[in-house]
Description:
Elements lengths: L5 H23 L11 E3 L3 E3 L1 H20 L1 H25 L4 E2 L3 E2 L2 H18 L2 H21 L1 H5 L2 H11 L2 H4 L1 E2 L4 E2 L6 H4 L3 H10 L14 H14 L18 H9 L5 E2 L4 E2 L6 H4 L3 H10 L11 H14 L3
Antiparallel strand pairs: 1-2, 3-4, 5-6, 7-8
Helix pairs in contact: 1-2, 1-3, 1-4, 2-3, 3-4, 3-5, 4-5, 7-11, 10-11, 12-15, 14-15
Amino acid sequence: MEESSPARLYAGVVGVTLVAAGIAGFFYNASFNSDPADRDALLGLFYVNGWTNVAHILTGLLGLVAFTAGAYVSRYYAVGLGIVYSAVAVWGVIIGSGDSILSIIPVSAENNFLHLAIALTGLAASQMWAVSAIVVTGALFGFLIPGVTKSDHDSQTPIDRGKALFAQEGCSNCHTLASSGSLGTIGPNLDEIKPDDKRSLNAIENGGVGTGAMPRDLSEGADADAIAAYVAYATGEAEPAGTGGPPGTGEPPGKQAFAQSCGSCHTLADAGTSATIGPDLDQIEPNEKLVLAMIKAGPGAMPPNLVTGKEAREIAEYVASVAGR
């Protein structure tokens, strides 16, 4: 095989690109934690954090080593990276944008597309057509099947999903909640303490409040959010949640959360708030990255991490889309 093979060219170009992207990524976000909200968009498109930056640098360095070693090693690098990145792309499609793979790799449509492009290019450059055909077929099934198998799942509201998960995850065995027909006495009576979604999510993530008998991370990601939303609704602490504000309003997801958590301090015309304790958001017109940074750091009198996770992302997206308009 010639030393100037497509695989060797792929290893060199992708190696340099990934190392550069990993280094640049640290200037955008260098955090190493499992909070899906703690991520920033490299070049305004691809979400990164400390974990992805390290992964990009390491896989890039492997590419440069393969390039130096020659066409034979580069071929195996190309097909190996193609298989791994195909799996990551399909995994990202299955769990959905806004979540994270293994609680560390941010997922978005742009990230999925980039991973798939790197994968398919690598498989083509490797010229291992049988392996490539198998992987591409698997990737296509991965991209197509979730849209079919998750149709019922996607048609459910978060409240409906949360109710089903409340029973499936065993919450009903320990808690009393009239809406679910559960009469458990091991944990707190939820009808009596009436937790809002933040308190419920905190209990799910940290193993309960008080006795600590409840295991940590009994549910994670979107499932945990759905259970928390259901409990809050079932106990009268929240309205049914769809994909945005209250049903039928057509409001963006973060508008109601902004009004409840931020409206007492900030002016934002779209939300109908005119408080002057904090900055006038219509004047400074912050982008999504700046809003998330403000929420996380809590500048001035604002408490840090007033909201977290999905709610923080939704507020940031909402403010960035309406401030000054």
